[in-house]
Design a protein that fits this description.
Helices cover 50% and strands 13% of the residues. With 267 residues, the protein is α/β, with parallel strands linked by helices. A 7-stranded parallel β-sheet has the order 3-2-1-4-5-6-7, sandwiched between helices. Helix 2 links the parallel strand 2 and strand 3. The longest helix is centred in the middle third of the chain and has 29 residues. It is globular and about 50 Å long. The model has no long low-confidence stretch (mean pLDDT 94). The structure holds NADP nicotinamide-adenine-dinucleotide phosphate. NADP nicotinamide-adenine-dinucleotide phosphate (NAP) binds next to helix 1. Keywords: Fatty acid biosynthesis, Fatty acid metabolism, Lipid biosynthesis, Lipid metabolism, NADP, Oxidoreductase. This is SDR family oxidoreductase.
């Protein structure tokens, strides 16, 4: 199996394309010849990236500035994608919060559920019928190692990523022999930018440099895994360690240990 062949009429959609892993996925897809639709809120940042990718790789790049946590703002994009030939969907946009739920902003927690889980569901429902009808398509779901375990002080994020992890691995079982690939990217920490030492988080301080993986590396191995229709890609030693610990340790044992660590992230 492989990714759908690049085609000037088809588009690969990347959500969260204005920074980090999404920006790297967009660049890697363009380098492989795919024309793109970039989605995030910051339109001007994506226009700059789009110009660079058109110039460097000669692909078509469209920008859709939309707040995916807002159902009304998301609706027109969902409707548009349902009508277009979407060859690849990277459900990547996501946010996280740290700390006890009662101390967090309830509105932002709801937005997190909308963005990390409901928008992923909506966008997948929009593009999947066309992919199945064409017997060609590929969906990369960006979950997290955090979705494998209960994480006190990161409850909304861990729960939304549990949704993505399970949705991805369940859906791919339905799509066997359909011509549509579905792969879950479930990383641990990915260094999306070099931290300012004055503002480095506890994770930045604790994890030695050689254990960090870059967004560019994650994008490349994730698209390779999607082309091979792997069930799950967990890039890097640290991610693999977290993944195994989270999946195979009793949840009652894991929860207090990771909860103590994440309490420090909550500040
Ligand atoms: N980095 C890690 O260590 C790590 C580990 C495991 C999983 N992940 C997952 O990987 C994905 C990407 O993470 P990242 O580290 O690359 O994050 P990032 O650099 O913060 O990028 C997040 C992207 O999502 C977009 N976004 C945020 N809120 C949005 C909204 N309401 N509507 C539309 N787009 C929105 C942002 O763009 P705008 O601000 O322009 O909207 C940005 O492009 C996330 O799903 C994250 O949970 C990351």
């Amino acid at each position: 199996m492989s990714l759908p062949n690049p085609n000037p009429d088809a588009r690969a959609v990347v959500t969260g394309a204005s920074s980090g892993i999404g920006e790297a996925l967009a660049a890697e897809l363009a380098a492989r010849g795919h024309s793109l639709i970039l989605v995030a809120r910051r339109g001007e940042v994506m226009e700059k990236l789009a110009a660079e990718l058109r110039e460097k790789y000669g692909v078509e790049v469209e920008v859709r500035a939309a707040d995916l946590s807002d159902r009304d703002a998301r609706g027109p994009l969902v409707a548009e994608l349902a009508e277009r030939e979407i060859s690849i969907l990277c459900n990547n946009a996501g946010i996280a919060t740290f700390g006890p739920l009662t101390e967090l902003d309830p509105g932002y927690e709801r937005d997190q559920v909308e963005l990390n889980a409901v928008a992923v569901h909506d966008l997948t429902l929009a593009v999947l019928p066309g992919m199945v009808a064409r017997r060609s398509g590929a969906i990369l779901m960006v979950g997290s190692a955090a979705g494998n375990m209960p994480i006190p002080n990161n409850a909304t994020y861990a729960a939304t990523k549990a949704f993505v992890n399970t949705f991805s691995e369940s859906l791919r079982g339905e799509l066997k022999d359909s011509g549509v690939n579905v792969t879950l990217l479930a990383p641990g920490p990915v260094r999306t930018e070099t931290p300012d030492p004055a503002e480095a988080s506890i994770v930045d301080k604790l994890v030695p440099d050689f254990l960090w993986i870059s967004s560019e590396y994650v994008a490349k191995v994730s698209l390779d895994a999607l082309a091979e229709n792997k069930m799950r890609i967990v890039p890097g030693i640290l991610s693999k360690g977290m993944s195994v610990a989270g999946q195979y340790s009793p949840r009652s044992v894991v929860a207090p240990i990771v909860g103590t660590f994440y309490k420090k992230l909550g500040g």
